[in-house]
Protein backbone atom coordinates (compact mmCIF):
# COMPACT_ATOMS: atom_id res chain seq x y z
CA UNK A 1 0.00 0.00 0.00
CA UNK A 2 1.31 3.48 -0.83
CA UNK A 3 2.65 5.45 2.10
CA UNK A 4 1.39 8.92 2.97
CA UNK A 5 3.73 11.78 3.77
CA UNK A 6 2.48 15.08 5.15
CA UNK A 7 4.58 17.91 3.78
CA UNK A 8 4.60 21.06 5.92
CA UNK A 9 6.81 23.72 4.35
CA UNK A 10 6.21 26.61 6.77
CA UNK A 11 7.90 29.98 6.66
CA UNK A 12 11.04 31.76 5.47
CA UNK A 13 13.22 29.38 3.47
CA UNK A 14 10.87 26.48 4.35
CA UNK A 15 9.04 26.39 0.97
CA UNK A 16 12.25 26.57 -1.15
CA UNK A 17 14.14 23.86 0.70
CA UNK A 18 11.07 21.60 0.92
CA UNK A 19 10.54 21.99 -2.83
CA UNK A 20 13.94 20.39 -3.45
CA UNK A 21 13.28 17.57 -0.97
CA UNK A 22 9.93 16.85 -2.67
CA UNK A 23 11.67 16.55 -6.03
CA UNK A 24 14.07 14.00 -4.51
CA UNK A 25 11.32 11.94 -2.84
CA UNK A 26 9.21 11.91 -6.00
CA UNK A 27 12.22 10.78 -7.98
CA UNK A 28 12.94 7.94 -5.54
CA UNK A 29 9.33 6.73 -5.54
CA UNK A 30 6.61 8.47 -7.57
CA UNK A 31 3.96 6.32 -5.87
CA UNK A 32 4.49 7.92 -2.46
CA UNK A 33 1.55 10.16 -1.64
CA UNK A 34 2.62 13.66 -0.60
CA UNK A 35 -0.01 15.91 0.99
CA UNK A 36 0.92 19.52 1.63
CA UNK A 37 -0.60 21.64 4.40
CA UNK A 38 0.09 25.06 5.95
CA UNK A 39 2.00 25.40 9.22
CA UNK A 40 3.58 28.15 11.30
CA UNK A 41 3.23 31.80 10.32
CA UNK A 42 1.92 30.82 6.89
CA UNK A 43 -0.92 28.91 8.58
CA UNK A 44 -1.61 31.79 10.95
CA UNK A 45 -1.97 34.15 7.99
CA UNK A 46 -4.24 31.71 6.18
CA UNK A 47 -6.30 30.15 8.98
CA UNK A 48 -5.58 32.14 12.15
CA UNK A 49 -3.55 29.42 13.93
CA UNK A 50 0.05 28.15 13.54
CA UNK A 51 -1.12 24.53 13.80
CA UNK A 52 -4.61 24.36 12.28
CA UNK A 53 -6.75 21.35 13.14
CA UNK A 54 -6.73 20.24 9.48
CA UNK A 55 -2.90 20.21 9.43
CA UNK A 56 -2.72 18.30 12.70
CA UNK A 57 -5.23 15.72 11.46
CA UNK A 58 -3.25 15.25 8.24
CA UNK A 59 -0.02 14.76 10.25
CA UNK A 60 -1.69 12.23 12.55
CA UNK A 61 -2.94 10.02 9.76
CA UNK A 62 0.30 10.15 7.73
CA UNK A 63 3.15 7.66 7.98
CA UNK A 64 5.61 10.51 8.33
CA UNK A 65 5.83 14.29 8.31
CA UNK A 66 8.39 16.23 6.31
CA UNK A 67 8.76 19.64 7.90
CA UNK A 68 10.54 22.75 6.56
CA UNK A 69 10.88 25.46 9.18
CA UNK A 70 8.66 27.97 10.94
CA UNK A 71 9.08 31.47 12.30
CA UNK A 72 9.58 35.00 11.16
CA UNK A 73 10.29 38.21 13.03
CA UNK A 74 6.98 39.66 11.82
CA UNK A 75 5.14 37.28 14.20
CA UNK A 76 7.24 38.24 17.26
CA UNK A 77 4.46 40.36 18.78
CA UNK A 78 1.77 37.68 18.64
CA UNK A 79 0.68 36.08 21.93
CA UNK A 80 2.91 33.05 22.68
CA UNK A 81 0.26 30.42 21.83
CA UNK A 82 -0.14 31.86 18.32
CA UNK A 83 3.59 32.14 17.53
CA UNK A 84 4.75 29.97 14.59
CA UNK A 85 7.20 27.99 16.79
CA UNK A 86 4.26 26.63 18.82
CA UNK A 87 3.36 24.49 15.81
CA UNK A 88 6.38 22.23 16.35
CA UNK A 89 5.69 21.83 20.05
CA UNK A 90 2.05 21.00 19.25
CA UNK A 91 3.05 18.40 16.66
CA UNK A 92 5.59 16.78 18.99
CA UNK A 93 2.99 16.54 21.73
CA UNK A 94 0.12 15.27 19.59
CA UNK A 95 2.20 12.70 17.74
CA UNK A 96 3.95 11.66 20.99
CA UNK A 97 7.38 12.11 19.43
CA UNK A 98 9.75 11.17 22.24
CA UNK A 99 12.93 10.18 20.41
CA UNK A 100 14.96 12.89 18.72
CA UNK A 101 17.63 11.67 16.31
CA UNK A 102 20.38 14.06 15.34
CA UNK A 103 23.16 12.72 13.14
CA UNK A 104 26.45 14.60 12.90
CA UNK A 105 28.20 13.56 9.72
CA UNK A 106 31.22 15.32 8.30
CA UNK A 107 31.26 14.83 4.55
CA UNK A 108 34.82 14.52 3.20
CA UNK A 109 34.27 17.50 0.89
CA UNK A 110 33.51 19.72 3.88
CA UNK A 111 36.52 18.94 6.08
CA UNK A 112 37.54 22.60 6.11
CA UNK A 113 34.12 23.70 7.42
CA UNK A 114 34.73 22.19 10.86
CA UNK A 115 36.47 24.29 13.46
CA UNK A 116 38.35 21.20 14.67
CA UNK A 117 41.60 19.88 13.22
CA UNK A 118 41.08 17.60 10.24
CA UNK A 119 42.71 14.60 11.90
CA UNK A 120 40.25 14.86 14.82
CA UNK A 121 37.02 15.03 12.78
CA UNK A 122 37.79 13.31 9.49
CA UNK A 123 35.34 10.41 9.09
CA UNK A 124 32.92 11.69 11.75
CA UNK A 125 29.56 9.90 11.58
CA UNK A 126 27.73 9.83 14.90
CA UNK A 127 24.10 9.85 15.91
CA UNK A 128 22.64 11.35 19.06
CA UNK A 129 19.38 9.83 20.31
CA UNK A 130 17.89 12.39 22.70
CA UNK A 131 14.82 11.73 24.84
CA UNK A 132 12.49 14.58 24.01
CA UNK A 133 9.43 14.64 26.23
CA UNK A 134 10.61 14.09 29.82
CA UNK A 135 13.35 15.17 32.24
CA UNK A 136 13.74 18.48 34.02
CA UNK A 137 12.10 20.31 31.07
CA UNK A 138 8.68 18.86 31.87
CA UNK A 139 8.97 17.44 35.42
CA UNK A 140 6.52 18.74 38.00
CA UNK A 141 6.47 20.55 40.36
CA UNK A 142 8.28 23.58 39.06
CA UNK A 143 8.07 27.27 39.70
CA UNK A 144 9.12 29.93 42.18
CA UNK A 145 8.49 29.53 45.94
CA UNK A 146 9.67 30.66 49.34
CA UNK A 147 12.64 28.84 50.88
CA UNK A 148 11.49 27.23 54.14
CA UNK A 149 14.80 26.28 55.76
CA UNK A 150 18.60 26.51 55.57
CA UNK A 151 20.90 29.41 54.81
CA UNK A 152 18.50 31.12 52.40
CA UNK A 153 15.33 30.78 54.48
CA UNK A 154 12.53 33.20 53.50
CA UNK A 155 14.30 33.99 50.25
CA UNK A 156 12.59 33.19 46.93
CA UNK A 157 13.88 30.23 44.90
CA UNK A 158 13.30 28.96 41.39
CA UNK A 159 13.00 25.17 41.08
CA UNK A 160 12.38 22.38 38.55
CA UNK A 161 12.03 18.64 38.92
CA UNK A 162 14.29 16.19 37.12
CA UNK A 163 12.40 12.93 36.66
CA UNK A 164 12.16 9.91 34.38
CA UNK A 165 9.58 7.12 34.55
CA UNK A 166 10.89 3.60 33.97
CA UNK A 167 8.87 3.07 30.78
CA UNK A 168 10.09 6.41 29.42
CA UNK A 169 13.70 5.23 29.74
CA UNK A 170 12.88 1.77 28.40
CA UNK A 171 11.27 3.08 25.21
CA UNK A 172 14.12 5.46 24.35
CA UNK A 173 16.66 2.75 25.21
CA UNK A 174 14.90 0.33 22.86
CA UNK A 175 15.05 2.80 19.97
CA UNK A 176 18.73 3.55 20.67
CA UNK A 177 19.72 -0.13 20.87
CA UNK A 178 17.83 -0.97 17.69
CA UNK A 179 19.46 1.87 15.78
CA UNK A 180 22.88 0.85 17.15
CA UNK A 181 22.22 -2.63 15.86
CA UNK A 182 21.66 -1.25 12.35
CA UNK A 183 24.92 0.75 12.54
CA UNK A 184 28.21 -0.19 14.26
CA UNK A 185 26.68 -1.92 17.32
CA UNK A 186 28.21 0.58 19.74
CA UNK A 187 26.05 2.59 22.12
CA UNK A 188 27.19 5.12 24.71
CA UNK A 189 24.66 6.22 27.34
CA UNK A 190 25.36 9.62 28.84
CA UNK A 191 24.23 10.63 32.32
CA UNK A 192 25.39 12.16 35.58
CA UNK A 193 24.94 9.04 37.70
CA UNK A 194 27.69 10.08 40.12
CA UNK A 195 25.51 12.96 41.37
CA UNK A 196 21.89 12.60 40.24
CA UNK A 197 19.39 9.97 41.42
CA UNK A 198 17.48 10.30 38.13
CA UNK A 199 20.68 9.50 36.25
CA UNK A 200 21.51 6.45 38.36
CA UNK A 201 17.97 5.20 37.73
CA UNK A 202 18.41 5.92 33.99
CA UNK A 203 21.68 3.97 33.97
CA UNK A 204 20.16 0.96 35.78
CA UNK A 205 17.34 0.72 33.25
CA UNK A 206 19.68 1.11 30.27
CA UNK A 207 21.76 -1.77 31.65
CA UNK A 208 18.63 -3.86 32.08
CA UNK A 209 17.43 -3.18 28.50
CA UNK A 210 20.94 -3.99 27.20
CA UNK A 211 20.36 -7.64 28.18
CA UNK A 212 18.06 -7.90 25.14
CA UNK A 213 20.84 -6.61 22.89
CA UNK A 214 23.94 -8.67 23.73
CA UNK A 215 25.38 -7.91 20.28
CA UNK A 216 25.52 -4.16 21.04
CA UNK A 217 28.52 -2.91 23.02
CA UNK A 218 27.20 -0.59 25.73
CA UNK A 219 29.30 2.02 27.52
CA UNK A 220 28.45 4.83 29.94
CA UNK A 221 29.90 8.29 30.27
CA UNK A 222 29.24 11.25 32.55
CA UNK A 223 27.90 14.31 30.76
CA UNK A 224 30.84 16.55 31.73
CA UNK A 225 33.34 14.07 30.31
CA UNK A 226 31.15 13.50 27.22
CA UNK A 227 31.11 17.24 26.46
CA UNK A 228 34.92 17.13 26.57
CA UNK A 229 35.30 13.87 24.63
CA UNK A 230 33.05 15.13 21.83
CA UNK A 231 35.62 17.76 20.89
CA UNK A 232 38.70 15.78 21.98
CA UNK A 233 38.01 12.51 20.19
CA UNK A 234 34.56 12.51 18.53
CA UNK A 235 35.38 9.47 16.39
CA UNK A 236 35.11 7.22 19.46
CA UNK A 237 31.30 7.59 19.33
CA UNK A 238 28.80 5.86 17.08
CA UNK A 239 25.37 6.15 18.74
CA UNK A 240 24.83 8.21 21.89
CA UNK A 241 21.65 7.97 23.97
CA UNK A 242 20.83 10.53 26.60
CA UNK A 243 18.07 12.46 28.36
CA UNK A 244 16.39 15.66 27.29
CA UNK A 245 18.62 18.21 29.05
CA UNK A 246 21.98 16.61 28.31
CA UNK A 247 20.86 15.78 24.77
CA UNK A 248 19.84 19.35 24.08
CA UNK A 249 23.34 20.57 24.86
CA UNK A 250 25.30 17.69 23.35
CA UNK A 251 23.41 17.67 20.05
CA UNK A 252 24.19 21.34 19.46
CA UNK A 253 27.81 20.74 20.37
CA UNK A 254 27.99 17.74 18.01
CA UNK A 255 26.32 19.66 15.20
CA UNK A 256 29.10 22.24 15.23
CA UNK A 257 31.70 19.53 14.66
CA UNK A 258 30.40 19.43 11.11
CA UNK A 259 30.69 23.16 10.61
CA UNK A 260 27.49 23.99 8.79
CA UNK A 261 23.94 24.37 10.01
CA UNK A 262 22.67 23.96 6.44
CA UNK A 263 23.80 20.31 6.41
CA UNK A 264 22.11 18.91 9.52
CA UNK A 265 18.97 16.77 9.30
CA UNK A 266 16.93 15.52 12.26
CA UNK A 267 14.12 13.13 13.08
CA UNK A 268 11.68 12.82 15.96
CA UNK A 269 10.00 9.44 16.33
CA UNK A 270 7.19 7.92 18.35
CA UNK A 271 6.76 4.31 19.46
CA UNK A 272 5.26 3.35 16.06
CA UNK A 273 8.22 4.88 14.20
CA UNK A 274 5.90 7.53 12.86
CA UNK A 275 8.18 10.53 12.61
CA UNK A 276 8.67 14.20 11.99
CA UNK A 277 11.68 14.97 9.81
CA UNK A 278 13.16 18.44 9.60
CA UNK A 279 16.41 20.31 9.09
CA UNK A 280 18.06 21.37 12.35
CA UNK A 281 18.18 24.99 11.26
CA UNK A 282 15.38 27.56 11.44
CA UNK A 283 13.47 29.48 8.80
CA UNK A 284 16.36 31.88 8.05
CA UNK A 285 14.12 34.85 7.13
CA UNK A 286 17.27 36.85 6.32
CA UNK A 287 17.86 34.79 3.15
CA UNK A 288 14.32 33.66 2.31
CA UNK A 289 13.12 33.84 -1.29
CA UNK A 290 16.60 34.47 -2.71
CA UNK A 291 17.40 30.94 -3.93
CA UNK A 292 20.54 30.85 -1.75
CA UNK A 293 19.46 28.56 1.13
CA UNK A 294 21.18 25.20 1.43
CA UNK A 295 18.53 22.49 0.81
CA UNK A 296 20.81 19.59 1.83
CA UNK A 297 19.70 19.34 5.49
CA UNK A 298 16.10 18.97 4.26
CA UNK A 299 17.06 16.49 1.55
CA UNK A 300 19.00 14.49 4.18
CA UNK A 301 15.93 14.68 6.45
CA UNK A 302 13.96 13.08 3.62
CA UNK A 303 16.59 10.30 3.56
CA UNK A 304 16.05 9.77 7.30
CA UNK A 305 12.30 9.63 6.68
CA UNK A 306 12.79 6.82 4.19
CA UNK A 307 15.12 4.98 6.60
CA UNK A 308 13.24 5.23 9.87
CA UNK A 309 9.54 5.59 9.00
CA UNK A 310 9.34 3.76 5.66
CA UNK A 311 12.04 1.15 6.31
CA UNK A 312 13.82 1.91 3.04
CA UNK A 313 17.48 1.85 3.98
CA UNK A 314 18.71 1.45 0.39
CA UNK A 315 16.85 4.54 -0.81
CA UNK A 316 18.13 6.53 2.17
CA UNK A 317 21.70 5.53 1.32
CA UNK A 318 21.14 6.46 -2.33
CA UNK A 319 20.23 10.01 -1.32
CA UNK A 320 23.11 10.28 1.17
CA UNK A 321 25.57 9.07 -1.47
CA UNK A 322 24.21 11.59 -3.98
CA UNK A 323 24.81 14.38 -1.42
CA UNK A 324 28.34 13.16 -0.86
CA UNK A 325 29.06 13.00 -4.61
CA UNK A 326 27.70 16.48 -5.27
CA UNK A 327 29.95 17.85 -2.53
CA UNK A 328 32.89 15.90 -3.92
CA UNK A 329 32.19 17.52 -7.29
CA UNK A 330 32.75 20.86 -5.57
CA UNK A 331 29.20 22.27 -5.58
CA UNK A 332 28.49 24.61 -2.68
CA UNK A 333 25.61 26.82 -1.59
CA UNK A 334 26.85 30.11 -0.16
CA UNK A 335 26.76 28.95 3.50
CA UNK A 336 29.42 26.29 2.78
CA UNK A 337 31.20 28.08 -0.07
CA UNK A 338 34.98 28.49 -0.12
CA UNK A 339 37.20 29.88 -2.87
CA UNK A 340 37.95 27.38 -5.59
CA UNK A 341 34.51 25.71 -5.46
CA UNK A 342 31.36 26.23 -7.56
CA UNK A 343 28.73 28.41 -5.95
CA UNK A 344 25.18 27.21 -6.68
CA UNK A 345 21.69 28.23 -5.60
CA UNK A 346 19.00 26.21 -3.80
CA UNK A 347 17.38 24.93 -6.98
CA UNK A 348 20.68 24.18 -8.71
CA UNK A 349 21.76 22.10 -5.70
CA UNK A 350 18.47 20.17 -6.03
CA UNK A 351 19.12 19.71 -9.78
CA UNK A 352 22.60 18.32 -9.04
CA UNK A 353 21.26 15.79 -6.52
CA UNK A 354 18.62 14.60 -9.01
CA UNK A 355 21.27 14.26 -11.68
CA UNK A 356 23.37 12.07 -9.39
CA UNK A 357 20.34 9.98 -8.47
CA UNK A 358 19.60 9.35 -12.11
CA UNK A 359 23.29 8.51 -12.70
CA UNK A 360 23.68 11.18 -15.34
P1 LIG B 1 18.14 30.10 11.70
O1 LIG B 1 18.64 28.71 11.82
O2 LIG B 1 16.93 30.30 10.92
O3 LIG B 1 19.32 31.00 11.05
C1 LIG B 1 20.60 31.17 11.65
C2 LIG B 1 21.62 31.59 10.55
O4 LIG B 1 21.89 30.46 9.73
C3 LIG B 1 21.08 32.68 9.62
O5 LIG B 1 22.14 33.54 9.25
C4 LIG B 1 20.60 31.93 8.40
O6 LIG B 1 20.67 32.67 7.21
C5 LIG B 1 21.56 30.73 8.38
N1 LIG B 1 20.91 29.53 7.83
C6 LIG B 1 19.98 28.75 8.44
N2 LIG B 1 19.60 27.75 7.64
C7 LIG B 1 20.31 27.89 6.50
C8 LIG B 1 20.35 27.19 5.26
N3 LIG B 1 19.59 26.09 5.04
N4 LIG B 1 21.18 27.62 4.31
C9 LIG B 1 21.95 28.70 4.48
N5 LIG B 1 21.98 29.41 5.62
C10 LIG B 1 21.15 29.02 6.61
O7 LIG B 1 18.00 30.66 13.18
P2 LIG B 1 17.46 32.08 13.69
O8 LIG B 1 17.92 33.17 12.76
O9 LIG B 1 17.83 32.14 15.10
O10 LIG B 1 15.89 31.96 13.61
C11 LIG B 1 15.09 32.42 12.51
C12 LIG B 1 13.67 32.00 12.74
O11 LIG B 1 13.61 30.56 12.70
C13 LIG B 1 13.09 32.41 14.09
O12 LIG B 1 11.76 32.84 13.89
C14 LIG B 1 13.15 31.13 14.91
O13 LIG B 1 12.17 31.10 15.92
C15 LIG B 1 12.91 30.09 13.87
N6 LIG B 1 13.41 28.75 14.18
C16 LIG B 1 12.65 27.72 13.73
C17 LIG B 1 13.07 26.41 13.91
C18 LIG B 1 12.23 25.32 13.34
O14 LIG B 1 11.35 25.57 12.54
N7 LIG B 1 12.48 24.05 13.70
C19 LIG B 1 14.29 26.16 14.57
C20 LIG B 1 15.06 27.23 14.99
C21 LIG B 1 14.62 28.55 14.79
UniProtKB/TrEMBL annotation:
<feature type="binding site">
    <location>
        <position position="92"/>
    </location>
    <ligand>
        <name>substrate</name>
    </ligand>
</feature>
<keyword id="KW-0479">Metal-binding</keyword>
<keyword id="KW-0560">Oxidoreductase</keyword>
<feature type="binding site">
    <location>
        <begin position="282"/>
        <end position="294"/>
    </location>
    <ligand>
        <name>NAD(+)</name>
    </ligand>
</feature>
<keyword id="KW-0432">Leucine biosynthesis</keyword>
<dbReference type="GO" id="GO:0051287">
    <property type="term" value="F:NAD binding"/>
</dbReference>
<keyword id="KW-0100">Branched-chain amino acid biosynthesis</keyword>
<feature type="site" description="Important for catalysis">
    <location>
        <position position="192"/>
    </location>
</feature>
<feature type="binding site">
    <location>
        <position position="130"/>
    </location>
    <ligand>
        <name>substrate</name>
    </ligand>
</feature>
<keyword id="KW-0460">Magnesium</keyword>
<dbReference type="InterPro" id="IPR024084">
    <property type="entry name" value="IsoPropMal-DH-like_dom"/>
</dbReference>
<dbReference type="GO" id="GO:0000287">
    <property type="term" value="F:magnesium ion binding"/>
</dbReference>
<feature type="domain" description="Isopropylmalate dehydrogenase-like">
    <location>
        <begin position="4"/>
        <end position="353"/>
    </location>
</feature>
<dbReference type="GO" id="GO:0009098">
    <property type="term" value="P:L-leucine biosynthetic process"/>
</dbReference>
<keyword id="KW-0520">NAD</keyword>
<keyword id="KW-0464">Manganese</keyword>
<dbReference type="InterPro" id="IPR019818">
    <property type="entry name" value="IsoCit/isopropylmalate_DH_CS"/>
</dbReference>
<dbReference type="InterPro" id="IPR004429">
    <property type="entry name" value="Isopropylmalate_DH"/>
</dbReference>
<comment type="subunit">
    <text>Homodimer.</text>
</comment>
<feature type="binding site">
    <location>
        <position position="248"/>
    </location>
    <ligand>
        <name>Mg(2+)</name>
    </ligand>
</feature>
<keyword id="KW-0963">Cytoplasm</keyword>
<dbReference type="Pfam" id="PF00180">
    <property type="entry name" value="Iso_dh"/>
</dbReference>
<dbReference type="GO" id="GO:0003862">
    <property type="term" value="F:3-isopropylmalate dehydrogenase activity"/>
</dbReference>
<keyword id="KW-0028">Amino-acid biosynthesis</keyword>
<feature type="binding site">
    <location>
        <position position="252"/>
    </location>
    <ligand>
        <name>Mg(2+)</name>
    </ligand>
</feature>
<protein>
    <recommendedName>
        <fullName>3-isopropylmalate dehydrogenase</fullName>
        <ecNumber>1.1.1.85</ecNumber>
    </recommendedName>
</protein>
<comment type="pathway">
    <text>Amino-acid biosynthesis; L-leucine biosynthesis; L-leucine from 3-methyl-2-oxobutanoate: step 3/4.</text>
</comment>
<feature type="binding site">
    <location>
        <position position="102"/>
    </location>
    <ligand>
        <name>substrate</name>
    </ligand>
</feature>
<comment type="similarity">
    <text>Belongs to the isocitrate and isopropylmalate dehydrogenases family. LeuB type 1 subfamily.</text>
</comment>
<feature type="site" description="Important for catalysis">
    <location>
        <position position="137"/>
    </location>
</feature>
<feature type="binding site">
    <location>
        <position position="224"/>
    </location>
    <ligand>
        <name>Mg(2+)</name>
    </ligand>
</feature>
<dbReference type="GO" id="GO:0005829">
    <property type="term" value="C:cytosol"/>
</dbReference>
<feature type="binding site">
    <location>
        <position position="224"/>
    </location>
    <ligand>
        <name>substrate</name>
    </ligand>
</feature>
<comment type="function">
    <text>Catalyzes the oxidation of 3-carboxy-2-hydroxy-4-methylpentanoate (3-isopropylmalate) to 3-carboxy-4-methyl-2-oxopentanoate. The product decarboxylates to 4-methyl-2 oxopentanoate.</text>
</comment>
Amino acid sequence: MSKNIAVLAGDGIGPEIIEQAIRVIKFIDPTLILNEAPIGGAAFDLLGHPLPESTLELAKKSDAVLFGAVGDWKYDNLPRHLRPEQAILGLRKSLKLFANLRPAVLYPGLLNASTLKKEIVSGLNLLIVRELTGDVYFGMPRGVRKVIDGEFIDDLEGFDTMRYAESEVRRIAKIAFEISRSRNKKLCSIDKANVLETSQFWRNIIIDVSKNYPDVELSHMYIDNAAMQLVKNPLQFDVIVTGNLFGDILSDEASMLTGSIGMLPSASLNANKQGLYEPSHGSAPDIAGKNIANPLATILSAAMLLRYSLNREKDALKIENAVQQVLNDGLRTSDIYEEGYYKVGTKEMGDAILKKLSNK
